[in-house]
Give the backbone structure.
Amino acid sequence: MKRLRRPLIIIGSVVTSFALAIGGLFAAWLAGMHVPIASGATYLRIEKIAPLSSADRVSGGPTQPFFILLVGNDSRPGVGGARGDALHVLGVNPARHQATMLDIPRDTCWNGDKINAGNTHGPRQQANDVGGLLGVNISYVVDVDFAGFTSLVDGVGGVNLNVPTQMHDGYSGAYFNPGMQHMNGQNALAFSRDRHDFPSSDLVRTSNQGILILAAMRQLRQEMQSAGGEFKLLALLGRHAQLDGIGINDLYHLGRLAFSLNPDQIKNIRIPVVNGQCLNLGAGAAGLFADFRDDGVVEGQ
Amino acid sequence: MLLPRRLVVLLALVVALAACGGSGKHQAKASANGTPKVSNKETDLTVGTVTVETAGPDVNLGKPQQKAVLAASQTYLDSAVIAPLTSGAVGAGFAPLFDPSIRGAATGADNATLTDAPIGKVKKFNQTASPVAISALADGSGAFVYLASNFTVNVKATTADGPATLTKNVELTFAPAGSKWTVTAYRVTALRKLPASTASSTAAQSTGGTSK
């Protein structure tokens, strides 16, 4: 019995030692996890996750309301002149963080001619004519031709657009069903050129161009959330658009400002005109322009 | 024969007690010190992807310009993240990084997001950072007009109130200012998981201002 007892004591001691060792390590681990050991208290772990904070700022942006003219001209192989067939003025109010876009039909009368003729003398003349019509000083112009437009759209990977009505036009090549579609540059160009599908011709086309611009802004706003994305877009604009009153440097600041605006809250208004060969301003135009002119934002629409 | 066996038992107990006292020793060391030394292994940022966009001819971003962006990003990390956790105060290199037109915002309204001063000095921490992605924009002549860095920092810290974690994504856009590049725009997000009492002091978070 004595012989058996001694080995048992030794084995028991060793086992106890290991148990204590493992227990000690476990206790240390628990202590590290801030779990009270044998305190009898209920442990409550409280962790507050502070809200995700963000800071987004850019230097050098304008602080006063400003107006930027977006021009799509019809210059393409075999067709010279570069008339401003798509004319859209974006008024931006940085302080209010709001904007309004006025769509100008290309056949709107100005100084005895169609207003789109101004672009044949360059983007600045077009800006002066449109600015004169609206009574605003247009500081910046971004002017693209057919090739530039398609390259821009393709460069950003196409645009998602909600086509409002059936389109079946052999002149422009617009064959679209209503509903959301992803368009490449060629399709987007066809969409923006189609006027033969509509009784009011260029008026609907002008509105559709506004829809396309806002759709592009909506998409770019989601995708251009980094400097890398912004640089890509600016490089595309630099290569494929004619800029007036603005360089790449300024465009970066304006782009940051523009993409901070919610396109869903940008009012898109086609100016009222009276149908005819050369479109005269319709009722309400003077009031609309005055509303637009004072701070870049139209209130009463 | 009995003595050696008792010695074996005794030794086993000593080993067990030593194991039990592992964490205690660590805590005792920390508490005995009074002002525990913050352990901080320096994080040296490295260049990751380099992307060049150009409105003109194809150009490459040279090593000196990459180094300039990396150095400025390192200064930001050291002064805005590491320094506050180490000493409780933002480093001296922070404010000069920014263009004067946004320096006021960076040191004012946006400071609580841009820097980790609100967390304050911690007992200990370690941090990791992603490689710095560099983007560059060249104008029609091929001259670089903007450079940007983008990186993410993860910090695990122990504050006086308990463990804390920080995840920060930093985008700094640089414009040339003479021979230097200064930060002309920034986008920074910070997610802080803090012990309750610490978090309450950082509840007021800043966001971008009117020049957004």
About this structure: Residues 12-40, 199-212 of chain B have pLDDT under 50 and may be disordered. Strands of chain B lie at 47-54, 124-129, 132-138, 144-159, 162-177, 180-195. Chain B touches chain A through 69 residues (CB under 8 Å). The helical segments of chain B are 2-20, 22-33, 63-87, 100-107, 111-114, 196-200.
